[in-house]
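FW: tagging you since you asked about this chain on Friday. Here's the raw sequence from the shared folder, copied in full. Didn't touch anything.
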Amino acid sequence: MPTQAFSEIARIDARDKVLGRAQYGADVKLPGMLHAMLVPAAVAKGRVSTLDVASATQTPGVVQVLGIGDFPTLRAEISYRGQPIALVVAETVEAAIEGAEAVKAVYETAPYIPLMTSPGAQRIEAEGFNAGDVDNAFQSAAHVIEGTFETPTQHHNPMELFGTVAEWTDGRLTVYEGCQNLDAVKGALMRTFELSPDRIVVKSEQVGGGFGQKSPPKIQTALVAQAARLTRRPVKLVTPRGQLFHIANYRPRSVHNIRLAASAEGRLQAIIYDVVQENIPDGGFRSTGYHEDIARLYAIENFRATAGDIHIDRQMPRHTRGTHPFPAGFALESVIDEMAYKLGKDPVQLRLAHEAKNDIVAGQPLSPHFLNDCLKEGARRFGWERRVPEPGAMRLADGTLVGFGVACGVFGASMSASEATLRVQADGVTRIISSGHEMGQGILTAIANVVIEGLDINPDRLEVLLGDTTLGPQLATVGERGTASCVPAAAKAVEALRARFAELAGPNPPAGNLHQQLARLKRPYIEVKVAELAPGQDASAIDAYRMGGRAGAGPDYPGFTSMSYIAQFVEVHIEPTTRRIRMPRAVSIADVGRVVSPTTAKGQMYGGIVWGFSTALREESEVDPRFAGYLNDDLADYVMAVNADIGEIDVGLIDKPDSRINSVGVKGMGELVMLGTAPAIANAIYHATGKRIRKLPIRIDDLL
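HL: got it, structure written out here
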């Protein structure tokens, strides 16, 4: 691969999106297609004693109603409000909605726990972690800071709803769906319908945002497939957002107690960290995961973590953008800032003095990383030297309070085994088949840039194909491992094709680009297929990958741990009377290894700042404890950041490869980019007002 910086190219799918040609799951239209609508449970816990579908079946246009017992996922036992209890299939969307509203259920209710703080809620202890001698470090500490921090229940709310289209043809099932993990969907359908892999195809050409919500198989997918099988017609279901709030996964509420010890000289010595979160029994979001990344952020050798879950009666929480390091980082970066004030040290300098070299979680070195470079460059661009240290000391001419805040973020650099097939044709077409999902993050463009930089081809006729199980296995695009897995495979394919072409052309290749040379050599095409492994993996990982199994690795690899880092700087303005909070500018500098697609990488960072602002000051899923349901289950009431909220954003990338993780030195960044923003805003608010806010989202009344 070239060693110079990659060029900035436009998104290769931008034109299709602007012209409306990009196809999302719900865009699929098939001849004779029916429409479906779910019927959600209206109680939080209990049992359906009677389900009356007679009126629904008599509704004009209704073709079929699937009720309790008609499919394994339609159960009489109710575990959470909104759980599907029936599916109505009709000729039109309107008829499906009308039919769903006509279904009548009678319930036997049971006691339920809607919130972590509800009567009867109990903490279930999870596995902890201990490094160093924490007790001795605290006994010898000159300074100790302790705080309890709370982050709220939040929903992903991507623009694209859950949309599924299913069709059966000669015993073969094809599903179109916006998805982050096609292989998991295919595997679930194989088990449900007892089909061999060659009899199921799942396609996801474009995904309108995922952020973790579209990673696990959806409860509706198999239901729609069953409806299509029974009616012998294609069936489409687009789940309304109000229902999604109750059936899609979400970020759980969590409470973090953290104690930080420092010496008289200002050395950070130890952390005692405890977290408890809302969860369900056998939930898929581990409370033990909160400490794993933040323990690798700074050189603090003594670290004790405990964790627990409080079981509630709502749907399963799972990964949401930023996952565990977002709430954990809010707690840690807030107490780091508080300790800086107590020590009389600059918050940037305190962080610079504690650059981590070792991973205390895995007990091995960290790979080369450049968080300190992020801090220095961010401080320079932001103008941190203009900061007056005393809280409340900076004001505008009209009395507006001004605050500067800084915080950092860290996320594990994982990757997966992957394959790539690259073909260059004499007719001018280049095609690369890869694995993954395009969710707006720019994975298509990143792969394209690797091919364009490495080969002399016609760039305007390059095709990047993924998101289709007929092409081969499609790795889960989650946890920052999409680009980090696909790009090294693409780079390996480029090198293999160059070597193959050199053998073909000999010492005196014909003139022209690769297409022209192939034509002169009278070869219609040249093709290579390669496999790429994560460090420490062997051929069994590729076998697992090809079977749709788990093939991921990291961030701790044999002999080293790889992490991505970010530094966030924000300025807040607070109106002195109303206490309205504004963020006129932010600077974000990230270390994500080598940057293979600068355009889309910067786009990710802009989005991360917006998301971080939104989580800090706007977003919370409000639960009604009387019903264990969400009150603000639409975009009108679930308040998110809008254009008017966001000021100037300056982003930068260190662009230094991590040569140990893969041949390109690239790491993921999707989760990382929103980390650090919320605590930076909270720290800036403290600098402006002298008030330390430990609960998100921060409201105006918190400052009154």
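FW: The mean pLDDT is 96.
HL: agreed, and The first strand starts at residue 34 and ends at 40.
FW: great, closing this out.
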